[in-house]
Amino acid sequence: MHLNVDEIATAEEPHPNPPLAKGRGPEVHLNVEMFLLLSSINSLKNNQVMTQAITEELAQLTQDLLWMSEADYPWEVVSYDCSNITPEQLLEQSNLPSDTPVETVTIARFFAPVLREQSWHNEEERATRTRYQELFNFLNEQLNDLIVYRLGEVEIDVYVLGTVEDKTVGIKTTLVET
Q1: Are 82 and 166 in contact (CB under 8 A)?
Q2: Alpha-carbon distance 81 to 51, whole Å?
Q3: Which CATH fold would you assign to the domain 64-176?
Q4: Were both Cys, which of 1, 14, 80, 87 would link to 102 (CB 3.0–4.6 Å)?
Q5: What pLDDT, on the 0 to 100 scale, is given for residue 165?
Q6: Number of H helices, E strands in the chain
Q7: Cβ neighbours around 4 below 10 Å, total
Q8: What's the pLDDT score for residue 11?
C-alpha cells in the first residue's frame, strides 16, 4: 500500500495502537513486523554512523603521526565489511601472497615501545608519546577484539584491528626490520 503525505494521520487522542495512516481503506496500524523492520533500519543506520565516527576519529588521531622503525611510515585508517577478519582474508585484501608470514601480537605489546616514558625524551618526543597514548586509549575504548597483525618480513605491513558491530576497523602502517 502506498501512502502520500496527505494521508498521514495525526492522532488527537492517545490510542493503544495509534493509526499510522487514514485513507481510502481501513486504518493501517503499526504492527510488530513493521516496528521490527524500522528498528533494524535505525540500528543499521546507527551502526554506520558509529563506524564512520570511529574511522573519522582514527584519521584525526593518526594525522601526521609516524611509526618509527628503520624507516618512518604514516598510519592510514582501514575498514572491512566483516567482523573478525581472518589472516587469510587480510592477506587477500592486502594483495599479498597466501604464503606471506603472519604474526599476531597484542595491542599492548605492539604499542609498548612508543608508550614507555623515557627520561631522555625531549618535548617533541613527549608530545608524540602522548599522541600514541591517546590513540591506544581510543582503540581500547571503541573497538572490540583488538589484535595486531604483522604481515611479511623485513618490510612489514602492520594492521591494528578491532570490531565495531559487524565491521573490522583499525589502522595500518609499515615498519622495517632488518
Answers
A1: yes
A2: 11
A3: Nuia (3.40.1460)
A4: 87
A5: 84
A6: 4, 9
A7: 8
A8: 43
The whole-number pLDDT of residue 162 equals 96
Q: Is 85 exposed, middle or buried (0-12, 13-18, 19+ CB in 10 A)?
A: buried
Residue ranges per structural domain of the chain: 5-30, 64-176
C-alpha cell at 58: 582514527
Cβ pair 50, 165 in contact under 8 A: yes
Q: What is the pLDDT of residues 45-91, one digit of tens each?
A: 455 777 889 999 999 999 999 998 888 999 999 999 988 899 999 99
Q: How far apart are CA 176 and CA 72, in angstroms?
A: 8
Question: How many CB atoms neighbour CB 10 within 10 A?
Answer: 7
- Give the residue from 74, 78, 71 showing the smallest Cα distance to 62: 74
DSSP H/E element including 105: strand 102-105
At 141, which helix (H) or strand (E)? helix 123-142
Backbone angles phi, psi at 170, to 5 degrees: 175, -155
Place of cell 609516524: 66
Q: Residue 139 in 3-state DSSP?
A: helix
Distance (Å, rounded) from C-alpha 34 to C-alpha 3? Answer: 15
